[in-house]
Write a structure and sequence with these properties.
single chain; Methylamine Dehydrogenase, Chain H; 4-stranded antiparallel β-sheet
């Protein structure tokens, strides 16, 4: 069984505070995607490499000052211990796994000489642990706050820039400066008292000379702490606080402080006078959660909560959008008929059209407060038709995203599946309540021809026969129905003890394949609805997607095991596997010219795999 070659990944989890960083070699960006950490080249072809530790979502990422190590922490929903994975950034191999914190690792930081790693637990485990990077063992630890209050939660941690044995933690109702006693393996904390001032902090940064620490607060101002005396120094500015709080901070070698807000604004200030020197002309899309400096800060990379990465020029503060991705679970991916150069995806944040080889977003379509559940191109490529959770079907132009028509109340519980007739004159849709409807599309109106109600559960997939006389629908009620589109009755019905997720015709249309929650792929005869063959294609989790290559010799499956598998149709043998996905795979498609396999995940990532030559 050979491995599929991963060509590219589109994705960025911008909700991770401080998740975006620049490697010490100044040539790579490091950021989280689902349960993976991506190392991506800044220039050229932007070569990508993935570090996947386990199946849990990455909650924090840290890069050592030398660039030797990358560490990632995770978050889970159960009251169990979570792991911190330490990676060798050069060899791209796992070095150590640390396991002490429960539920969540909130933040990580390396000491300046790569001697220690400090980790900060979340709300369920408000503790600090220092790890020895030579032995891989816990060196010492302590509580985030003196009283151990559940309200005192650490949000960020940073080591001093010139000292391996001192670091600062900050969070809700707690600011502490720590010293590591190497001889006794103990931590010695000093609480910073703010007097009558009450602040919760999001982030912190330490000046290059270790004189001051700057802490961004949820109220939109910045606290200055004197680290030599370990006392509160000032709060700035007195007027004009950052809207939606200070969410990220960075400091350049020349001494200026970069302050980012939850409103998407990045400003450059003099920390002595607190005078604003530069500011982004327009707010970035989403709250800025990361500020990463390249080199001495001539280039600034800003990551936002809406999964955008911007490049900011330090001298004039001009912004350039570097990369975009979905910031919610992706439902479907589709290609236009006989075209492989672009594809469309739909997610909670709308529809996007992508250039396949450049990984570039060509078009973005969104409907406020609505979730797109399915998407399909018209056969002539002049329309993008989509189903939404508000029960509407909407059609847009693929060039501009202009709304062409809208069918309200098309289905109860949302429009969940769509299929175009090959002549472009009919549209078949399925809904969350199990109804299949056929629509006649005219130049200026859309008419309901018939509704077919036999399914009892959500329609997950509809595929059309080439001559447009039949279609097949797969439902969560455990049935697949082949419909006669002339008489609007069923020709055959297929039953199984499963939740059917996908179905498709073989190119000769004599058989259909099905996959679902029973982890099996089934071969069914179209003529009489009999099951010809079935076998397991997954050892864990539901199989969520299926697609057959245009030549009919191979088919691909994917699902909650986070693997893409390519099978021979006749042999039923898995010949190729694609692994290291960042989340559960929700959908996949083989492109029409059989060059790529594109799959999308529940964490908003898009993976493009090279289709094996000659298969």
């Amino acid at each position: 069984m050979a491995a599929l070659a991963l060509e590219s990944v589109i994705g960025f989890n911008g909700k991770v505070p401080g998740g975006l960083s620049v490697h010490a070699n100044k040539e790579q960006l490091i950021y989280p995607v689902g349960c993976a950490v991506v190392l991506e080249g800044i220039a050229g072809k932007k070569k990508q490499q993935l570090l996947v530790g386990d199946n849990n979502t990455v909650s924090c990422v840290a890069t050592s000052k030398s660039g030797r190590f990358v560490a990632s922490g995770t978050i889970i929903t159960q009251d169990l211990k979570v792991e911190i994975v330490l990676w060798d950034a050069k060899e791209l191999k796992e070095k150590f796994r640390f396991k002490l914190h429960k539920v969540e690792v909130r933040a990580l930081a390396f000491s300046p000489n790569d001697k220690y790693l400090v980790s900060l637990g979340g709300q369920d485990d408000p503790s600090v642990v220092v790890w020895d990077l030579e032995t891989g063992a816990a060196f010492c630890g302590g509580a985030v706050s003196a009283g151990g209050s559940a309200l005192c939660i650490g949000n960020d941690v940073k080591f001093f820039n010139n000292k391996d044995t001192s670091f600062v933690t900050a969070g809700n109702a707690t600011i502490r400066v720590w010293d590591i006693d190497v001889a006794t393996h103990k931590l010695k904390p000093v609480d910073v008292i703010l007097g009558s001032l009450r602040r919760d902090t999001n982030c912190l940064v330490i000046s290059p000379d270790d004189e001051n620490a700057y802490l961004g607060t949820k109220t939109g101002d910045v606290l200055t702490i004197n680290l030599r005396n370990r006392i509160f120094k000032a709060v700035s500015p007195e007027k004009g606080r950052c809207e939606n709080g200070v969410t990220a901070l960075a400091i350049v070698r020349t001494g200026q402080l970069l302050v980012a807000s939850g409103a998407g604004v990045v400003i450059k200030v003099n920390p002595t006078t607190w005078k604003t020197e530069s500011q982004t002309a327009k707010p970035l899309f989403g709250a800025v959660t990361s500020l990463a400096l390249r080199g001495d800060g001539h280039e600034i990379y800003a990551g936002t909560s809406c999964s955008q990465i911007y490049r900011i020029n330090f001298s004039d503060f001009n912004t350039e959008l570097r990369s975009v991705s979905h910031y919610g679970p992706i439902s479907q991916v589709c290609f236009p008929t006989k075209i492989s150069d672009l594809f469309a995806t739909c997610a909670t944040d709308g529809i996007r059209v992508w250039d396949t080889t450049l990984n570039k977003e060509l078009l973005r379509i969104s409907v406020p407060n609505k979730t797109c559940m399915c998407v399909v191109f018209s056969p002539d490529g002049k329309l993008i038709v989509s189903g939404w959770d508000d029960s509407a079907i909407r059609a847009f132009t693929p060039q501009t995203g202009k709304l062409v028509f809208e069918i309200f109340d098309a289905h109860q519980d949302g429009a969940t599946a769509l299929a175009f007739a090959h002549n472009g004159q009919r549209l078949v849709s399925g809904g969350g309540a199990g109804l299949v409807r056929v629509w006649k599309l005219g130049a200026d109106k859309q008419t309901l021809e018939c509704g077919m109600k036999e399914h009892k559960g959500r329609i997950n997939e509809i595929r059309m026969k080439k001559n447009d006389t039949e279609c097949v629908s797969a439902s969560a009620d455990g049935s697949v129905i082949i419909w006669d589109l002339k008489r609007f009755v069923r020709n055959q019905i297929l039953f199984a003890n499963t939740i059917f997720r996908q179905t498709c015709y073989r190119p000769d249309e004599a058989q259909v394949l099905t996959v679902g929650s029973d982890r099996k792929v089934g071969y069914w005869e179209v003529f009489d609805g009999s099951l010809i063959r079935e076998f397991d294609v997954s050892v864990a989790g539901c199989v969520t997607s299926l697609d057959i290559a245009a030549d009919g010799n191979t088919f691909a499956t994917a699902g909650e095991d986070r693997l893409v598998k390519l099978y021979g149709y006749g042999s039923g043998i898995c010949n190729f596997v694609g692994s290291n996905h960042s989340g559960n795979i929700s959908h996949l498609r083989i492109c029409p010219n059989q060059r790529f396999i594109v799959c999308v995940t529940t964490d908003g990532a898009i993976f493009r795999w090279a289709y094996p030559p000659g298969k």
